[in-house]
């Protein structure tokens, strides 16, 4: 019987040679697969020749025996590197072989770990394979592209080849200078061109995703599509492409997208067939289709060029600090073609690049044997960065060096990366058809806008639905990565790191734990829940009383239900929620499985250690009973007896003094009415209230229970946890938790359509976090009061059926509802939003009609607040602009108006938010003309108490009619004053709120 040979990946790990952090940082595709670095190395990295650590040759020299021999053979390092270099250096200096410039190499490659590498060692062992230049006048990639067919380019260092052979033959080592584009190659396509599309696919699970299927279907409208996946796929997957593509194959070759293009052109389709097309598209699956391709392809069809791409980039991630962008913000493609491409040759690292995710090559290039040789020669390399340098940037430079005229659909190059920064959203706004997945999957430049796509794409009418994109990202990107990418909320600030084990112990000791908080910890190996944990989670998923905290490890764990929080285990937020969980489900009770050192006196750890043939734990129902028996007491679990220390009919209103001003006024206007009905009411600042105060009242009403937006991320997160603990102080002692909200902030798909998000992409991450945290807090409430029926309908889709929702019309303080004297004026005076600032996109709804109406009525004057830029489109002598004014001044201002305008963009967000300015105007007898949305319809009876405009095109006609009849305006204003103010009387709404509190307090809170 022979001894088992340890697999090489396992042997490498056992010898301590595998550096997981270095490996993951150097290979972005590790993140995209969702695999642990160790698993990725074993499955993909080692077969592709990727090193397990940065100093492999040095460490290899210290190994003996079988492992040394196996590694040397696997990596082609049979000769110790130092000896090789000494031999090569005999003809030059001790700094390296002849032709190697140490100073240049250090300057061009500052990230190399020089503690373990001499620069010349690095070049001889690694650098030339990565395409790094040994001196300013020798370009490894260009030399190999141009002359590599004359020698074994896969194994021979180009610099050594040049010294031994190339110099004597007079082989060029750099592209010809000056760089000149041949105008004879710049020709448009015929009106109806024949196109082929070589499509490169890859999927970690061997699937053709729905997002990719949409993209392929669109491409097939314009080209004959040929599909090759760089992974294994079952026939049923490829069968989805029947009737869409001309050919579909799947095979693992490890050479990324360029390898797929190479195999398709060389082996699967053939150059002869490709030469019959007018244009060949090279496209990969790294993008989501946002707009149809018709406009882009039609525009580029008529452009005279030999090849083109969607956009160009100047600067690679590793070279940007060394090679600043050669302009303040942007360069036009005309400037680049006009001479800058020659200057780019002087950069230590060539980094001008036409995006290879969508390239179009015309007949001259496809027929050029030099191009065919380059594409045919694509081979597997050790990481994505090398692919970019050799085959993506390298192809751009090669084609430019051959003189082929190029163009791009985007006519400029920006300093910030055009598809991996916020510039991407500007491009989409202007019709760019594609969104790069890597922007959301990796956020390579750490922007604060990665969540903006969810807001922008629905408004743009994206071909690929947001839900499909989100599902794809969740499937192919580790949840930790998605969370961390969206936690970048300040420019230049990285997400907060998790605490050390010692600091976690202190956090655990000082954090309250709750019996109804249960943590489900993913296993350290495969990132899944144990069978027991999965069954228990499914059993309690829809229980609104128990908070379920899923702590992930590299894999998403989807679970429908309520009061479910999913966070990475290795994150600060994950630590903070774990510390609050009394019950913790985990595979094994040791530290590696649990992740963090929990105090066993504070937490009940339920471990399942899987063993072959081991009996299963009890059924979920029995297990739940066991857990309940160990609980220390909570009003949310069975057997709790409510204390008799609570003050009857007592309620505390908690508010944030820096936010929700209108919401606050709406609730405070009812306090007198509540007190007259026997309630003891106290209003307190939410950041300065003690938890024990809340345990002595029967009800707590949060005025806008949302995560704070006006604070730095760390402070906002701490404030959100404080709100959570305040809620639990009330819930845990049988108190009633009510929240009053006036907007659908907690429903991100709706909130994403708001002006706050749409107009501020760079705050998208912070606003998305704000929305998610608000939703998680609302999960903990007993009831919600809202201002509009539409908001109630939206919230019903978020909350649990046991959480009641009550529509409570808005109110104003008595002073705001007091009628001010009306000044005597001869002209007609119009205002917008009752003298408050209106979002530019809302005002734009009526702007053309408003301008026409003002032109027709010289006696009309428009009063605008905080809208100077908008006013530029209106007659200057007819518009008066103001800074924001205090509420009391605004009531006096409103008393002098004849008509209030309330134009709103037709979005779900606007339809749900209360139109408080209508009430404010009505208090002063001013009627409102507004967009016909549900939030306005509940306040305005069209033609009786105000006016509604169903179509934006009708604004001009409605305004003209109203401005011709001032008497009708006064009559409708009086009707509005009587009807609208009566419906929103503070005492009337206080009676409604009192009834709500009384009804809720009668209900039992115990959970059986």
TrEMBL record:
GO terms for molecular function: glycosyltransferase activity. Keywords: Transferase. Residues 80-100 are annotated as: Disordered. The keyword Acyltransferase does not apply. InterPro entries: RgpF (IPR007739). The keyword Transferase applies. It comes from the Bacteria. Pfam families: Glyco_trans_1_4, RgpF. This is Glycosyl transferases group 1.
